[in-house]
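We were asked to recover a plausible sequence for a given structure. The inputs and outputs are reproduced exactly as logged, with field labels preserved.

PROBLEM: sequence recovery
POSITIONS: 427
GIVEN STRUCTURE:
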C-alpha cells in the first residue's frame, strides 16, 4: 500500500488542509494527518496540493504531427483550414505515424497531469487497426485511460471506417472504451448516415457539430434543416453521444440535445484559434445540456482550456457573473462522470473506492487557503502555472519528481523520424 502524506487534498468537493491518501489501484483511505497509521511506501507531499487526474473529453491525437509543420496555409474560411491543414495531414498518416503521434501525445498529457482522454481519430493510410495502435501507445504502454473512435466521413472508405469503430468497440480492454466516431454533417452524405444508423443501433456517437458556419450553412442549403435535426432524422443522437463544439446552434437544437441525453464538448481555445466563435453556455445551461471539457487536439495542457473556458465564457456572455467557478466545476465533473460511466470505474473524487488517478502539484500560496476559498486558489493560482510533480493512473506512477518514468529519449527520436516521414509525404 502506498501513501501520500502531508498534503492539501481537493477534489472539487472536499478540502483537507493537512491530510493523507492511501492507495493501490484504487484509493483505500483518506484522512487528516493526525489519524495516519503508516504504509508500505510513503511519499511526502509537503507544499503540494493533490488533485484527481485531469481529463480531456475531446481531442485529436493525430494533431501532434502538425506542430512546426511548414506547408502553404492561407485560409479564408474554416473549410479552408480543413483542406489546407488537417485533411492534408491526416490523409498521410500510416500505422507507424498513428502509434508514434499517440505515444508523443500521451507523454505530453502525463507531463500536464492528464490521465484520461477521449480521442477522435483520423488516418487515411491506416484505418483498420488505427484505434488499437493508439490504444497500444496510450493505454497499454503508458497506462492512461482512453476512449477512442475513428472519424468516419466520405473522405475515407465508409465500410472500413464503420468496421474500425465497431471492431474496436467490441474488443476494448482495461482502461479503454469506444464510441462511434463521425467527422461532421458536411462530410457525410445521407446514404452514409443511413448506413451508419442501421449498423450502430444505440451506440453513442462522437461528432463535430456546428463548429463553424460552413457546417451549418451546408446543412441548411442541402437539406433545409439544422445539423441536429438532420442527425436526429437518422436516429443518430443516441444517449450519451458527444457533440463537439456546438458553437452555432439555436434554441430548438439545444432542446433536442437535452431531450436526447447528449453531451456537448466545449473547446474554447481551438474555437478562438480558428476564429469560428464561442458556444453560448447560457443557452446550453438553460436547456440543461451537460457540457464536458475538451481541447480539440490543440496541445496537451488541458488546464489552459479550463482557464480559457472560464474567461471566454464571461466575455461571450457579456458579464463577469454569468459563468461562475461553480459552472466550471460542473463541466469538469460532468467529464469525470462521463468517463467513469463509460469505463465502469469511479473517477474524479479523492475518496475510498475511486480509481487512484492522482496529480500532485506544488503550490505556495501568497494568501491563506481555506475550505471557502480553495476553488479560487485552484483556478487563479494552481491552474495558472500548472506543473505536476507526480502523476499516478490506476495507482501506477507515471511522473516522478517532474520526470516521466518512461525511457523517452530514444522513443522521441523515433517519433521525430516518423513525423519527418509524414511531412515528406505532404510535399
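RECOVERED SEQUENCE:
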Amino acid at each position: 500500500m502506498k501513501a501520500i502524506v502531508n498534503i492539501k487534498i481537493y477534489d472539487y468537493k472536499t478540502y483537507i488542509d493537512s491530510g493523507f491518501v492511501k492507495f493501490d489501484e484504487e484509493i483505500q483511505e483518506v484522512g487528516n494527518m493526525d489519524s495516519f497509521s503508516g504504509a508500505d511506501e510513503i511519499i511526502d507531499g509537503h507544499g503540494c496540493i493533490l488533485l484527481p487526474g485531469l481529463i480531456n473529453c475531446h481531442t485529436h491525437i493525430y494533431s501532434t504531427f502538425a506542430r512546426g509543420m511548414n506547408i502553404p496555409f492561407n485560409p479564408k474560411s474554416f473549410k479552408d483550414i480543413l483542406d489546407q491543414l488537417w485533411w492534408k495531414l491526416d490523409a498521410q498518416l500510416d500505422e507507424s505515424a498513428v502509434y508514434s503521434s499517440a505515444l508523443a501525445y500521451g507523454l505530453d498529457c502525463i507531463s500536464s497531469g492528464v490521465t484520461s482522454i477521449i480521442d477522435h481519430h483520423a488516418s487515411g493510410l491506416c484505418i483498420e487497426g488505427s484505434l488499437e495502435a493508439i490504444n497500444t501507445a496510450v493505454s497499454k504502454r503508458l497506462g492512461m485511460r482512453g476512449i477512442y473512435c475513428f472519424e468516419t466521413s466520405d473522405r475515407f472508405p465508409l465500410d472500413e471506417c464503420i468496421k474500425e469503430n465497431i471492431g474496436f468497440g467490441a474488443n476494448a480492454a482495461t482502461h479503454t472504451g469506444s464510441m462511434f466516431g463521425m467527422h461532421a454533417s458536411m462530410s457525410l452524405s445521407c446514404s452514409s448516415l443511413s448506413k451508419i444508423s442501421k449498423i450502430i443501433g444505440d451506440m453513442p456517437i462522437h461528432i463535430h457539430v456546428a463548429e463553424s458556419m460552413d457546417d451549418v450553412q451546408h446543412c441548411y442549403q442541402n437539406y433545409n434543416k439544422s445539423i441536429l435535426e438532420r442527425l436526429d432524422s437518422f436516429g443518430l443522437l443516441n444517449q450519451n453521444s458527444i457533440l463537439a463544439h456546438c458553437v452555432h446552434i439555436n434554441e430548438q437544437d439545444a432542446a433536442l440535445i437535452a431531450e436526447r441525453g447528449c453531451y456537448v464538448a466545449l473547446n474554447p481555445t481551438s474555437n478562438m484559434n480558428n476564429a469560428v466563435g464561442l458556444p453560448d453556455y447560457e443557452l446550453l445551461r438553460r436547456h440543461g445540456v451537460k457540457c464536458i471539457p475538451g481541447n480539440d487536439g490543440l496541445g496537451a495542457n488541458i488546464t489552459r482550456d479550463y482557464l480559457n473556458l472560464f474567461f471566454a465564457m464571461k466575455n461571450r456572455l457579456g458579464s463577469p457573473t454569468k459563468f461562475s467557478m461553480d459552472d466550471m466545476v460542473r463541466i469538469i465533473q460532468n467529464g469525470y462522470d462521463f468517463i467513469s460511466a463509460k469505463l465502469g470505474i469511479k473517477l474524479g473524487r479523492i475518496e475510498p473506492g475511486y480509481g487512484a488517478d492522482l496529480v500532485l502539484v506544488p503550490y505556495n500560496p501568497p494568501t491563506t487557503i481555506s475550505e471557502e476559498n480553495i476553488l479560487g486558489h485552484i483556478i487563479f493560482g494552481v491552474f495558472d502555472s500548472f506543473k505536476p510533480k507526480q502523476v499516478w493512473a490506476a495507482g501506477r506512477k507515471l511522473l516522478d519528481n517532474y520526470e516521466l518514468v518512461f525511457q523517452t529519449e530514444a522513443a522521441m527520436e523515433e517519433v521525430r523520424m516518423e513525423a519527418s516521414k509524414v511531412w515528406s509525404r505532404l510535399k
